[in-house]
Amino acid sequence: MKAQLAKGITAGATMLMMVGTASAQDINWDLALYGSPAFRVSGEKFAEYVNENSGGNMKITVHNGTLSPTREVLDNVSIGAFELGYVISSYHPGKNPLLSVMDLPFLPLDTMEDRVAVADMVYENAAVKKEFASWGIVPVMTVVQPNYEVMGKGTPPEDLEGFSGMRLKATSGIGNALASYGASLVNVSGPEQYNALQTGVIDAVAATPSAHGGYKLFELSDWYTTGMAAGTAHVTLVGNEAAYAALPDDMKALFQDAKAYATAETIKAQNNAAEDYLPDLEKHGLTEVKISDETIAKLRDEAAKPVWDAYVADMAAKGLPGQELLDLVLNAKP
Fold first, then answer.
1. What is the rounded distance in angstroms from the CA atom of residue 151 to the CA atom of residue 10?
2. pTM above 0.70?
3. Among 89, 304, 291, residue whose Cα is nearest residue 177
4. Any idea what the CATH number is for the domain that residue 61 is in?
5. What is the pLDDT of residues 237-285, one digit of tens each?
6. Do 130 and 203 sit in the same domain of this protein?
7. Which of 27, 50, 143, 298 is deepest in the core (most CB within 10 A)?
8. Is residue 280 in some structural domain?
9. What is the side-by-side strand order in the sheet with 137-142?
10. Mean pLDDT over residues 285-293, rounded?
């Protein structure tokens, strides 16, 4: 009996030591980033918060553009090549079709805060969770962006028909909307935009104002839009599912705090960046193309609804609940 008791005490002590080691062990993760300075803020501030508040128990090393090509981040996080990275849904919609609901144009998400709140609801949908799990990844946070505008060279479009024949880089629903007026969509990555615009591969870029400024597209452009309010490309900071599951509970809780901090910092950075590059537009003599409320109403009636319907039909053909996801987004009350 005494031997059994001693054995039990020893086993219990060993288990306590193991638990203590798990919560205090050094954890080192790598994070793949890319893009303009404001775009990188989410990942940078997330890592900064974890590194400064983990008590030395966890370190996230940020790599800007060196770990993976932008279109391969999902695959590389999936196989555990590194633990964290930015995934742009529209770069590979076939891999995350349901999540592409957040890329649809003219969704009723007026602010970046609205977009984060609704994205969190989408992440909690059972079918979307299954979609992430199929790749062995988990959503950590939304890399929130403001609504896209269009910047380009040549004759400024005076109306929607002015986009006819324009070769447009657009990775979200805004591209599909403008394609209905004759724009031709060209799929190039963010880092490729400047060269593509310079060499005539594209005529214009639909992106956030901070991306236009960060990539210095104003150096090559003649005009830019304001008030388009068409939506934005959805970006998720994803983590490797197995690596996340292995984290101690205190680190998982810290991730939630880091997410809130990084989101607030991202919104500030995006707003500041949009303001900071306005003098460059004036210096380079770009023409502002103001999109009227009437034009927005026309876009919503003529372009947005068909894109929404096409998304639902495509999901139905795949046996996926696209209508359920669209209804969730349209009826959300952030």
1. 69
2. yes
3. 304
4. 3.40.190.170
5. 999 999 999 999 999 999 999 999 999 999 999 999 888 888 999 999 9
6. no
7. 143
8. no
9. 58-64, 27-33, 84-88, 235-240, 137-142
10. 92
